[in-house]
Design brief:
This protein is of the alpha/beta class. 45% of the residues lie in helices and 11% in strands. It has a single domain, classed as Alpha-Beta Barrel (TIM Barrel), CATH 3.20.20.140. The structure holds zinc ion. Zinc ion binds next to β1.
Length: 313
């Protein structure tokens, strides 16, 4: 039952919803991030993400209790908003947290882990265990935080494994909050060679390239294996940094013209603030304004995700 979504949007789309981009935060992850940031940067992060409010929830008796409470409350919000499944991933090194949540909500959560590109050998060992014992379906990578390009040959043994097991790679590109960001690695062109060399892996570029609209459109031309996709997650804060006037709606139009509806996947980029119903609403409102057909909306909201993530219907 969609109790939090406006009636007109509810009437516009009542199909399945799969959200492919969500961050799992725990107090321990937050402590680590804080240690990585200088005071000014942390203050900005804290203000943006309501960290004090998040810290109120630290009273849980154990990590497991904390994860149980957190995941139960997220699943309740998903129920309230008609969201069927979400892809959820923790930060680097916190894979145990998602394993625990997956064992509790296996039908609602598609688990990814964060693949450390600076140590691909150790990450591959973690990934092997994650796939075999915990049902992990893909990885999140962040080339600009790790300062490694996805086509770096050190990544290839991991890609061999991912291709064999039908895993999906979700990569951050464009502007980023990560304190270790090096902009030399934020261009989504970095994904093209890896996607060319591994036709059996589906790659997703986060936030429609977060500012790299032209580059993302070029990638659709060079997508010889049809395995490069884009998630539409986030509020579109990058639009104000484009060198021309634009809007989410105009960006959608360009993506649909260049690559067709098959390339786009719905996502919210929900995070420490909890599930971002407003992004779900914003996306459906844009599709309504654009007068997309039900078939097109269904593909963006869930059909493409089912194909890309190899989920059974
Ligand atoms: Zn994100």
């Amino acid at each position: 039952m969609m109790i939090e979504i406006d009636q007109d949007i509810q009437d516009f789309y009542r199909g399945e919803i799969i959200d492919v981009h969500n961050h799992l935060f725990t107090p321990a992850m937050l402590d680590l991030m804080k240690a990585d940031m200088d005071e000014k940067r942390y203050q900005k992060f804290s203000d943006t993400f309501n960290v004090p409010e998040f810290n109120d929830g630290r009273a849980a008796k154990s990590d497991q209790d904390y994860l149980d409470n957190l995941s139960d409350s997220w699943v309740k919000t998903l129920d309230d908003n008609g969201v069927n499944k979400i892809v959820w991933f923790p930060f680097k090194g916190f894979h145990e947290a998602i394993y625990h949540i997956l064992s509790r909500h296996p039908n609602r959560i598609v688990g990814f882990i964060w693949f450390d590109m600076q140590d691909p050998q150790a990450s591959l060992e973690i990934l092997k265990d994650a796939v075999k014992h915990h049902g992990i379906r893909g990885v999140k990578i962040n080339p600009s935080a790790d300062h490694v390009h996805p086509h770096d040959k050190s990544m290839y043994p991991a890609y061999e494994f991912m291709e064999k097991h039908g895993l999906t790679v979700l990569s951050h590109y464009g502007i980023s909050m990560a304190p270790t960001t090096d902009v030399a690695y934020i261009n989504p062109f970095g994904i093209q060679v890896a996607a060319r060399d591994y036709p059996g892996i589906n790659f997703i570029i986060a936030h429609m390239g977060a500012g790299f609209v032209r580059e993302s459109l070029f990638l659709m031309y060079h997508d010889i294996n049809q395995n490069i996709h884009f998630d539409c997650s986030g509020s579109g804060s990058w639009i104000k940094y484009l060198p021309y006037d634009s809007s989410f709606e105009q960006v959608y139009r360009r993506f649909l013209d260049a690559g067709g509806v098959e390339r786009l996947l719905f996502g919210t980029d929900s995070n420490i603030r909890g599930y971002r119903t407003e992004i779900l609403k914003q996306n459906l409102q844009i599709f309504k304004n654009m007068e997309l057909s039900n078939k097109q909306v269904r593909k963006i909201m869930s059909g493409n995700a089912r194909r890309v993530l190899h989920l059974q219907p």
